[in-house]
Amino acid sequence: MPAVVIANTGDVPEFEGRITFNVIVCVVIAACGGLMFGYDIGVSGGVTAMDDFLKKFFYEVWERKQLAHENNYCKYDNKKLQLFTSSLYIAALIASFIASKTCSKLHLGLGVGFANQAVPLFLSELAPAKIRGALNISFQLFITIGILIANVVNYAAGKIHPYGFRISLGIAGVPALMLCLGSLAIHETPTSLIERKKVEEGRAVLKKIRGVDNVDREYDSIVHACEVASQITQPYHKLMKRESRPPLVIAIVMQVFQQFTGINAIMFYAPVLFQTVGFGSDAALLSSVITGLVNVLSTFVSVVLVDRVGRRALLLEACVQMFITQCIIGGILMKDLKITGNLPNGDALVVVIMVCVFVAGFAWSWGPLGWLIPSETFPLETRTAGFSFAVSSNMLCTFVIAQAFLSMLCHMRSGIFFFFAAWIVVMGLFALFLLPETKGVPVDEMVDRVWKQHWFWKRFFNDEQAVEKREAEMIRPHLI
Ligand code: BGC
């Protein structure tokens, strides 16, 4: 494997290292967490479009679907059906907080909440700064592959009557098992070892994963970060302090915005949505395979570009793209999809194409960066605690969208797409003015090099000079 000097732009220190086989193995295994999450996202939407499943568990939804003059926008509006899809995220929400405790002791864990908490942090700590974005995005890449696999399985299983949906649901155990077995084989990160006072082991692992002997500078930087972190016995308390606010706000907001792009209205309910605009059950499942494929392929764009053009450029470009597509979809439905009857064929095709363009934009921006940015911006002492807020915000918003989308579609009709478009404008403005660029900055240097330099967020840090100035001002009146 060729040696790569891990150099950074500007005045960021250079750490040596290569992209070793070890790094790659760790990334692949850890990213199985993404596969598990993705499969779960994809599978529920597919089975809820299968008649056998509906007949068995949601009979009234199935009956409503059969009515000749069914209401396009409301045929799937059923609280229990939505709860089926969204329940996973409540479970994951609780798990992410438990996982944050486990992660500060050990970087392993099971279940969606556990995996989402552990994997992005694991990847960000392990990756050399110069390619951290690309490595971290392997998590998102596996999420999208998981969704695609679920879509394909649903398409095939949908033809097996009457128990195809059981196959789709049963396969969800496979990636969980892979993650479980894989986690036995992976290294703990040097940071996690050094933090737990296993310093020599930490140095050895660092050498191994970087593939060079001289890791002194990076080792010193990690030790320094661990020393600072060890003074913090209550990370959640520290997280509530003023100086923790910038990364905390960014972590939560990135996840809230990620969900309010409307992506999961599309991911969970793509088959249902495509049926709404007039595709048959089979064609709807097939169309969601197509969007799943677009999702995977577009994530590669992010892998290639994130450490070159930076995070902000991708986020801003995607906002424009997603805004336009949501408005076009909303516009077509408003004009042509009446309460009963189907969309004309040409329109339905345009909707599918627009959904693909929307998914592509999300897949190279808010999708991966919603995980990457929160995992790389906290200082070590609050990293796991802070990141658990990001994960739980994701789960909470995913739950809200999964729970509300079909009812919102029923009541707001095409207006729901304009609702998401409005959110996209807000998140674009946020990214433009308040999101700092983190490309190429080592994780343990974020506070000094990113937050303290940002025009807005720097006010949350009392630097020494400001403290001295204040002290001098307090002393002066006594001297006069
Ligand atoms: C999001 C999921 C979403 C997926 C789509 C992830 O980053 O967290 O909610 O379904 O991307 O690819």
Automatic annotation (TrEMBL):
Keywords attached to this entry: Membrane, Sugar transport, Symport, Transmembrane, Transmembrane helix, Transport
InterPro entries membership: MFS_dom, MFS_STP/MST-like_plant, MFS_sugar_transport-like, MFS_trans_sf, STP/PLT_plant, Sugar/inositol_transpt, Sugar_transporter_CS
Gene3D superfamilies in alphabetical order: MFS general substrate transporter like domains
Superkingdom classification of source: Eukaryota
TM segment ranges: 19-39, 81-100, 135-157, 163-186, 248-272, 284-306, 313-333, 348-373, 385-409, 415-435
Keyword Metal-binding appears in the UniProt entry: no
Compartments it resides in: Membrane
Lipid bilayer topology: Multi-pass membrane protein
GO cellular component, one term: membrane
GO molecular function, one term: symporter activity
Every Major facilitator superfamily (MFS) profile domain range: 1-439
PANTHER family documented for this protein: SOLUTE CARRIER FAMILY 2, FACILITATED GLUCOSE TRANSPORTER (PTHR23500), SUGAR TRANSPORT PROTEIN 6 (PTHR23500:SF472)
Entry similarity comment: Belongs to the major facilitator superfamily. Sugar transporter (TC 2.A.1.1) family.
Protein name: Major facilitator superfamily (MFS) profile domain-containing protein
